[in-house]
Write a structure and sequence with these properties.
The complex is a heterodimer of chains A (139) and B (433). Chain A has 139 residues and is an alpha+beta fold. Chain A has a single domain, classed as Heat Shock Protein 90. Chain A is built from 5 helices and 5 strands. Chain A has a 5-stranded antiparallel β-sheet with strand order 1-2-3-5-4, with helices on one face. In chain A, strand 2 and strand 3 form a beta hairpin. The longest helix of chain A is centred in the middle third of the chain and has 22 residues. The model of chain A has no long low-confidence stretch (mean pLDDT 88). In chain B, helix 13 crosses helix 14. Chain B folds into 3 domains: 54 residues, Alpha-Beta Plaits, CATH 3.30.70.20; 259 residues, no CATH class; 60 residues, Orthogonal Bundle (3-methyladenine DNA Glycosylase II, Chain A, domain 3). In chain B, the strands form 4 sheets. Chain B has a 4-stranded parallel β-sheet with strand order 6-5-8-9, with helices on both faces. Helices cover 34% and strands 10% of the residues of chain B. Chain B has 433 residues and is an alpha/beta fold. Classes of the chains: A alpha+beta (139), B alpha/beta (433). Chains A and B meet through helix 1 and helix 2 of A and helix 11 and helix 13 of B.
Chain lengths: 139, 433
Amino acid sequence: MDPLKIHFEVDGEDFSSAGEASVEMKKKLRQLGIPADVIRRCSIAMYEGEINMVIHAHGGTADVEVYPDRIVIILEDHGPGIPDIDLAMQEGYSTANDRIHNMGFGAGMGLPNMKRYTEDMTVESTVGVGTKVTMTVKL
Amino acid sequence: MAKKEYRHSVSLDAEKCIGCTSCLRQCPTEAIRIRDGHARITAELCIDCGNCVRVCRQKAKRAVFDKFSDISPKYKWRIALPAPTLYGQFDNLKDVGALIDALLDCGFDEVYEVAKAAEIISEATRRYMRKQDIPRPVISSACPAIVRLIRMRFPDLCDNVLPILPPVEYASRKAKEKALEAHPELTEKDICTVFISPCPAKASYAKNGLSQTSSTIDYVVSISEMYLLLRDKVKRAEPGHSESQSGISGVKWASSGGESEGLFNDRYLAADDMNNAIQVLDAIETGKFPRLEFIELNACPGGCVGGPATVANPYIAKSRILGLRHGLPSSKNYLKLMDQKPDYVPENLMVDSPIKNHIPPVRLSDDFSEAMRMMQEIDRIYEELPRIDCGSCGAPTCRAFAEDVVKGECLFDDCVVYMRRMMQQQKTGGETT
């Protein structure tokens, strides 16, 4: 069976729309009858990813693929890239500027939370080219 | 045992309904469709918020309440439970006592202010919030439309809902208990409680209870009906003979933020109006508010003062209620628990059993692969639609229309915009645009 694909453009200019993809995805997963705790984990991971793309990469794309046994979320951007992925995965590590901190973001929990709420997460990143995060949540 | 059917408090007068799209667009759960020229409410999606009642220009949408005249003469002791919002409906009221006098004058034997119960509920909530092992943020259980929304659309947050009785329920239970004590000649069957309510959601609450907790309220009449009965009886020039039973903190519950202020904890959020409430719940679900302790959500703009069954503008009502606070202490009601732990909450204040999601979620099919197939079909149809959400097909959005088509509830041809486009194409010789 072909996976169900949902595509979102994440607008990098506008903080007010950050989180919309996550809410939209949640609605669809609910209609599919996916268990509530899986939906919650997916939407937290997606939300963190969206915020990351807005803060660091001027937006990007989010693609959700629903398979009978898993949900795969792929976040892709053409931002500055992550020089040291291991460092970025540490809780509390953040490169967000003061403006972002003043908005209540940039606590350095984005990537760690995404990892915590998903079964599998891979980060591929090239400095100056962009970042691709692939997360899998099992059903 | 057959499951008891949920009884709604919003109904439609099909003769008056002209099939316009006002209510269609305002329904937060997309429960309304226009079919055969009239609005139709899908019962299992309706949360009784009353938005449609508020916006219907034809007055075809009605909130269903008991009438004051419905109160059976078999009851020997009739207790009025006025919502604090009632106090804001009257201009130049000297004090709450004058209103209590007027209610007694209408034929009630006793008045038990819901605001009085609210002060006890505030204290119980403060105690509950001291517990270490509770899911945070705690979400208020006072607005039944919100509780129903959570159970339906945010099932994961059910555990966050405050498991303490809403003030009106505590008021009803306590008023009956006190009446039995004070009048030994009465039995339970002789006493009825009559809630004077700002909204249909609370009428539904009285009919259905809250999740598993059953209600002891016997009648729910609307503030708008009682306003007419009370208008001539309220003596505005002088203070009442009766004394008000609540302080500032109880009366405050009438408007948004009032409940939260009674918790003496600044880490709260109070949002009103359904759309704001939904946004806040979405944000909590994605973990956006880790540091908040308490969330107060009201379906109506401004809080209960904005209820569809009120008379006064919500902000005017709020301002009048502020005026009534002069001379009142911060609270008149306390639990008086001396030797208990600070986080102890008496059992009779707790809901009978936890609030659970037992409304079936809005799934396309019980079979997952069938649901996947339907979703793909919905996406495909949606791509072909004009996506202008005009409502002419009878669905609130093009997306909802695509869902209806796939569910077999209507035909693709019902999209007039699409059909017109096809006709124009035929006229111009089949050119594609």
